């Protein structure tokens, strides 16, 4: 039986910004997202800039509080108002950010950077060196880097240090927020392969966020597609890439096939969302009247593909995807 490590239900994260004359703007960064991550799987998250990918990641490591919705970790609901409950989230969920240069303290040697995670988790000092020496080769680093400062390392090595810091205290779920987009293509491939090996070796599950559908296809079991805070499609990586159903996913995939420029540049498309009806209705080539008034529910197109689009309303409505 598959075990769900993480279950997210109707998650909303709205930011209220100060405004003029008493009017306050609200950014609906994440607006009604539901998904789960099975033990041992990689759920890919795709979406252009500003679609809410990092906001979801930050909720899942306790950096942001949700406006509403629930997050369950290994079957237990996380109470974001309770420090102990959030501590449980942080204990079990690790994160690696896009830019290793800004996330590593330049004044500390690598050994101390990794040690900080052990100190934060309250691991006894006498165990630190053994834990550090165990994780370093697993992430593909030589032990000599422990005495180096981040500036003496390459981009790929720095990202491996971020991985070591995230995993030196064992985790159930690792969130990778664009972990290779700042790296050269050849280094990117090596780090992706290390991530695949680590997942097996440490029995991890991944939530893998990327602009790059090629990377997501290579890494993911399933892929979730976001558009301005809304989920528009979710399904097996193969279905999403070879038979995309939502007009937005189709656009992403056709860009992947047609354009010679790197996808990471192409996906920064910055479309205008619609604030009424379907979030994609303003630009959708297949827009119908109801798209302008109601955001569609999810329809089950097949056992491993679900799409939020009125074009698919002849299929059954789906609640568990
Ligand atoms: N702390 C915050 N306060 C106000 N607005 C925020 C905050 N954090 C994120 N946002 C807004 O929420 C939206 C989603 O941002 P988010 O960083 O999650 O997008 P993203 O999909 O990760 O984008 P990128 O691909 O550029 O990393 C954006 O409009 C962003 O400006
Ligand atoms: Mg982001």
- Please state the average pLDDT score: 92
CATH superfamily: P-loop containing nucleotide triphosphate hydrolases
Q: How many structurally independent domains?
A: 1
Unreliable runs: 263-268
The neighbouring-strand order within the major sheet is 6-7-8-3-9-10-12-11
CATH class: Alpha Beta
Largest sheet: 8 strands, mixed
What gyration radius follows from the Cα positions, in whole Å? 20 Å
Q: Treating each run of at least 4 consecutive H or I residues as one helix, how many helices?
A: 11
Notes on the protein architecture:
GO terms for molecular function: ATP binding; ATP hydrolysis activity. Keywords: ATP-binding, Nucleotide-binding, Transport. It comes from Candidatus Marsarchaeota G1 archaeon OSP_D. This protein has one domain: P-loop containing nucleotide triphosphate hydrolases (Rossmann fold, 3-Layer(aba) Sandwich). A hairpin with a 2-residue loop joins β4 and β5. It contains eleven helices and twelve strands. The protein is globular, with a radius of gyration of 20 Å. α4 runs parallel beside α6. It is 32% helix and 24% strand. Strands 6-7-8-3-9-10-12-11 form an eight-stranded mixed sheet, sandwiched between helices. A four-stranded antiparallel sheet has the order 2-1-4-5, with helices on one face. It is an alpha/beta fold and 321 residues long.
């Amino acid at each position: 039986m598959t075990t769900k490590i993480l279950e997210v239900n109707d998650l909303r994260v709205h930011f209220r910004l100060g405004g003029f004359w008493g009017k306050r703007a609200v950014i609906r960064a994440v607006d009604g997202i539901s998904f789960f991550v099975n033990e041992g799987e990689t759920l890919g998250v795709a979406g252009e800039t500003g679609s809410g990918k990092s906001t979801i990641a930050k909720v899942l490591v306790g950096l942001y509080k949700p406006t509403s919705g629930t997050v369950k970790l290994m079957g237990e609901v996380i109470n974001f108002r309770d420090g102990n409950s959030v501590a449980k989230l942080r204990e079990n969920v690790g994160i690696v950010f896009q830019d290793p240069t800004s996330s590593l303290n330049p004044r500390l040697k690598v050994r101390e950077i990794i040690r900080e995670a052990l100190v934060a988790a309250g691991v006894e000092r006498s165990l630190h060196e053994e834990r550090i020496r165990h994780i370093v080769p697993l992430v593909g680093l030589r032990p000599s880097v422990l005495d180096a400062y981040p500036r003496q390392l390459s981009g790929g090595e720095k990202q491996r240090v971020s991985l070591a810091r995230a995993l030196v205290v064992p985790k159930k779920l690792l969130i990778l927020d664009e972990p290779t987009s700042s790296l050269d293509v050849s280094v990117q491939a090596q780090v992706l392969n290390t991530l695949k090996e680590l997942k097996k070796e440490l029995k991890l599950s991944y939530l893998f966020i990327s602009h790059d559908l090629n990377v997501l296809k290579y890494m993911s079991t399933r892929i979730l597609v976001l558009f301005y805070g809304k989920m528009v499609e979710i399904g097996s990586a193969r279905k999403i890439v070879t038979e995309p159903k939502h007009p937005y996913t189709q656009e992403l995939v056709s860009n992947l096939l047609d354009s010679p420029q790197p996808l990471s540049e192409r996906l920064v498309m910055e479309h205008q969302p619609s604030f009424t009806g379907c979030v994609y209705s303003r630009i959708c080539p297949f827009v119908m009247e109801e798209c302008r008034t109601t955001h569609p529910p999810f329809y089950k197109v097949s056992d491993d593909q679900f799409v939020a689009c009125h074009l698919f309303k002849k299929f059954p409505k789906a609640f568990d995807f």
